[in-house]
Amino acid sequence: MVIRQPHHGHAGAEQEREDRAGQEAPCGDVAAFALGVLDPAEQVAFSRHLAGCENCRRDAADFGEFAPVLRPVLRDDPPGGRRPCSIARSVLVVAAGVVVAIAAVLSVVESLASHADPVDVSTLIRAEPAHAELFPLLERG
User: Where on the tree of life does the source sit, at the highest rank (predicted)?
Assistant: First the structure.
């Protein structure tokens, strides 16, 4: 079982400066290296990094124990690139649907409003209640 964290510090600050200056891979690439998912340039850079970092060599050996279990899962990804984020795609589809629905509602409202006859509110206020003819006792109060 892996007890150490793969994101560890180097033994000295000098090694960290060399890694950054030489554009070498950071210690966080240990799992990707062990699983074989780094591109060729990253693979070479991390191999050079491993030569000078005992902690990464131990972590790579630890991760290597799990690689046979994890590799079949990685094969499910489409070849030639990363799998698109389904959550982001879903959010965009929902947002587009909302925009289309709002546009449709506004279009219908605008269409109906342009054909409607204007109503004079004062005629509505002066209109006699319909129940006055049916229930004359209610009017006398």
Answer: Bacteria
The HSE-up count of residue 58 (CA atoms within 13 Å, CB side) is 12
Instruction: Spell out the domain ranges in the chain.
Output: 13-74, 86-140
Q: What mean pLDDT is predicted for residues 1-25?
A: 45
**pLDDT score, position 52:** 87
pLDDT tens digits for range 31-68: 788 778 888 888 888 888 888 888 888 888 887 777 77
Give the residue among 6, 131, 135 at the shortest CA–CA distance from 66. 6
DSSP state of 28: G
Paired tokens of 28: 């966080």
Q: Do 43 and 33 touch, CB atoms closer than 8 A?
A: yes
The CA distance from 84 to 77, in Å, is: 10
* Average pLDDT along the chain: 70
The DSSP secondary-structure symbol of 27 reads G
Q: Are 67 and 95 in contact (CB under 8 A)?
A: no
Cβ atoms 71, 36 nearer than 8 A? yes
Q: Say how far apart CA 41 and CA 39 lie, in whole Å.
A: 6
The residue type at 69: V
